[in-house]
Structures are given as structure tokens and as C-alpha cells.
From TrEMBL:
Pfam families referenced in this protein's UniProt entry, alphabetically: ABC_tran (PF00005)
Transport listed as a keyword: yes
Spans traversing the lipid bilayer: none
Native organism taxonomy: Bacteria, Bacillati, Candidatus Sysuimicrobiota, Candidatus Sysuimicrobiia, Candidatus Sysuimicrobiales
Location of the ABC transporter domain: 2-231
Name of this protein: ABC transporter ATP-binding protein
Keyword annotations: ATP-binding, Nucleotide-binding, Transport
Organism: Candidatus Segetimicrobium genomatis
């Protein structure tokens, strides 16, 4: 659907995007993540034709974007929580304007179909600026689907939404992907939603791709884990065993020990304590999350590439 090869963007002597390559396959959701200033917005702008690349190639549906710009743009769309439609006119009028811009000759049925799908039929006659944040997000999603795009570029579509509305928005995105087969390039700072909906994740840092994998594959690159054990036995026995094994640990409660370890060592620690007569009554394992990967990249504290 979308293929990016060796994309570069310079602003004077500053290189905002540095030789990145990736693919968004048909029917997949690919996350484009990174700290502020990583190059995400510049990349999106190049994919939309707002900014001209310094070097590299963008291909949509096997067609070179630079040579077939209009044809490609007719088959994609863009949605962002930071975009606002015209506030003084109705939702219906807003969608009608965009439908005409997209070249739809009879947009009425398409608008009503999508409004019914996203359950906002009753909002069509209302002024856009009278809507809630969640309602505006639904309208923006409808706007992005008017031309029946094969690929949508989504820039933080749930930003500024409360958790309930954000969850419903994600469900709508998941359903749109399932029902309509649309591909999505998705940017967000919310790692929980990226983990939920993205098939692949690309991490940018200082304009370069530093990691590219599935959400699970990325978290597996961090070997650290935290093991919390509730036990029935003598604390000195537990402490002596952990000191002997060189494990960093603490006792948040008299019969609870928290151990900073690795996933590979967890079975040996549990069995080792059992062999020393410590009765373990509860086990809690906290493994790295996508947020941990994000923080390591943002802080430059580790290499997860």
C-alpha cells in the first residue's frame, strides 16, 4: 500500500528525517512513534505532499507519489485530533464540502451511511463547534473515510480525549479496519493504545528508525523484569539467598519481596527459594511494556534497536 525508501528531509543544515525506509502493508495498522522532535510530523507531511523530501522515494499502490500525486491522494486520507473543521456551519455542511473536494459526485448517501455507522445521524444538522471532543473525533473519522480511502494517515486521533471516549474511538478504528480493510499509519504518545491496535511499530529518534518490530517483539528486547513474591518463612533466609545470587531486592512489606531481575532468571529464583524452605503464596511478574521501550529510546538509556 505505502512504501517509503531512503526518505530524507533537511531544513538548512538540520536533518529532520534521516534515511528512513518502511512499508505499510494492506489491511495493517503500523505505529509511527518517537519523542517530540523525532521526525514523525515531518514524515507525515512528506507523505501528504505538504513538504517536499530532500531525497528518497514515496510509493503508494505501486505508483510514484511525485509523478502521480493527485491519483495517490485520491486513494488516501488524513485524520488528526489537532485538525478542526469549520465551526460556524453544520456537520452535514462540513462533510459535504470535503466530499466535493474529494471529487464525490453524489456524496449524500455516503455521508449518511458513515454517520449511521459511527452513530452520529442526530449530529448532522448541528454546528461543528457545539460538539463535544468525542463527537468531533467521530466527525473527523467520517471525513477521513468519505473518499473510501485504502490508507489513512492518523496523527494522534485520541489526543485530548477522556479514557472512555478514547476507548470508543479505538474500537471504531479497529472496526473500520476490519469492515473496510483500510490500512493505517498511526502516530500516538499513548503506548497502551499502540499496543492494542498496531500490528507493527516503528520508533523514530533524531530522524532515524531505531527500532521496528511487533509490539510484543519490541518489549522482548528488554530483558529486565520485576518479580514480586509473597512468602511464608523467615525474611533472613530470603535475603541471604538473594544476596548470594546477586539480585537487587527490597521488602515493601514484611512478607513481600520485590526483586529486580531478568525474565530468564525468574524460574531459578522461585525454585531456589522453595528449596530453602520458603513457602511462596503469591507470585507477581511485571515485564517490560511498550512504554518502557519508548522511555529508553526517548532518554537514550539503552539500545532496543
Amino acid at each position: 500500500m505505502l512504501e517509503v525508501r531512503h526518505l530524507v528531509k533537511d531544513f538548512g543544515r538540520f536533518r529532520a528525517v534521516d534515511d528512513i525506509s518502511f512499508v505499510v502493508p494492506k489491511g495493517k495498522i503500523v505505529g509511527l512513534l518517537g519523542p517530540n522532535g523525532a521526525g514523525k510530523t515531518t514524515t507525515i507531511h512528506m507523505l501528504l505532499g505538504i513538504t517536499t523530501p530532500t531525497a528518497g522515494r514515496i510509493t503508494y499502490f505501486g505508483r510514484e507519489f511525485v509523478a502521480h500525486r493527485q491519483e495517490c491522494l485520491q486513494r488516501i486520507n488524513y485524520a488528526s485530533s489537532f485538525n478542526t473543521l469549520q465551526g460556524r456551519i453544520s456537520v452535514w455542511e462540513n462533510l459535504l464540502v470535503f466530499a466535493r473536494l474529494y471529487g464525490l459526485t453524489n456524496p449524500g448517501p455516503r455521508i449518511r451511511e458513515l454517520a449511521a455507522y459511527f452513530e452520529i445521524i442526530d449530529l448532522l444538522p448541528k454546528r461543528y463547534w457545539d460538539l463535544s471532543a468525542g463527537q468531533k473525533t467521530r466527525v473527523n473519522l467520517i471525513k477521513a473515510l468519505l473518499n473510501e480511502p485504502e490508507l489513512i494517515l492518523m496523527d494522534e486521533p485520541t489526543a485530548s480525549l477522556d479514557p472512555d471516549i478514547a476507548d470508543k474511538t479505538l474500537s471504531l478504528i479497529e472496526e473500520a479496519r476490519r469492515a473496510l480493510g483500510v490500512s493505517i499509519l498511526y502516530t500516538s504518545h499513548r503506548m497502551d493504545e499502540v499496543n492494542r491496535i498496531c500490528d507493527e511499530v516503528i520508533f523514530l529518534d533524531r530522524g532515524r528508525i531505531v527500532a521496528h518490530d511487533t509490539p510484543l517483539g519490541l518489549t522482548k528486547r528488554i530483558d529486565a523484569a520485576q518479580l514480586k513474591l509473597t512468602f511464608d518463612g523467615e525474611r533472613r533466609v530470603v535475603e541471604a539467598f538473594l544476596v548470594e545470587r546477586g539480585q537487587r531486592h527490597g521488602f515493601p512489606q514484611p512478607h513481600v519481596v520485590s526483586i529486580d531481575t531478568t525474565a530468564a532468571q525468574i524460574p531459578a529464583l522461585i525454585f531456589g527459594l522453595s528449596e530453602r524452605g520458603v513457602w511462596i503464596t503469591d507470585i507477581e511478574v511485571k515485564k517490560p511494556t511498550l512504554e518502557d521501550v519508548f522511555l529508553r529510546i526517548a532518554r537514550g538509556t539503552d539500545d532496543v534497536g
